[in-house]
Amino acid sequence: MVSPPEKAIETKAPRPLRADASRNRDKLAEIAGHVFAERGGNASLEEIARQAGVGIGTLYRHFPTREHLVEVVYRREVEGLCAAADELAIHNAPDAALGEWMQRFVDYIAAKRGMANSLRILFDGNSQVFANTSGMVAGALRKLVDAAVADGSIRSDINSADLLQALSGIYSAPDTPEWREQSRRLVSLLMDGLRWGSEKARL
């Protein structure tokens, strides 16, 4: 006797967001990145919603907790920094692209510092965001360094991993009102050091 076919299990895919809802979600994530960078740990979700032009209820519909929002913002910041490396490389000389990217790294660190507490919660909760973004920033920097070395516009003995370590050191700098401007000056000094002793500097 042939058994009747099993009834197919119906699975419903998540409904796509309406265009306006998708815009609201993107706007909230964009604004949150700026607010976290400017206000640090004092950034409020109410302020983020206000600047995005939506109510706090709309924010919570998209991001039920602060950590949900931080996870999206952190991924967006990493992807944006990496995309900037490709864009800068197209429109600038290799050393100029590297220098500008390093300045943008300061903004990335500012946002990351502002999300520090929530990022620790995500890390302790084994969030996949870190596994999914691991190595992306290092890879973007390595491409820029390799191009500038090949061009002869920075010294050839630079290791991109060492440079990333030096850049990441600004994360632990004291949180003062002058922190970002001081970090930009330090990055400029670091870039000057990369150019010193390069092939083009010796010409």
From TrEMBL:
Transcription listed as a keyword: yes
Positions of the DNA-binding region: 44-63
UniProtKB keywords: DNA-binding, Transcription, Transcription regulation
InterPro entries, A to Z: Homeodomain-like_sf (IPR009057), HTH-type_TetR-like_transc_reg (IPR050109), HTH_TetR (IPR001647), Tet_transcr_reg_TetR-rel_C_sf (IPR036271), TetR_SbtR-like_C (IPR049445)
TM stretches of this protein: none
Domain of life: Bacteria
UniProt name for this protein: TetR/AcrR family transcriptional regulator
Biased composition (Basic and acidic residues): 7-22
PROSITE patterns found in the cross-reference section: HTH_TETR_2
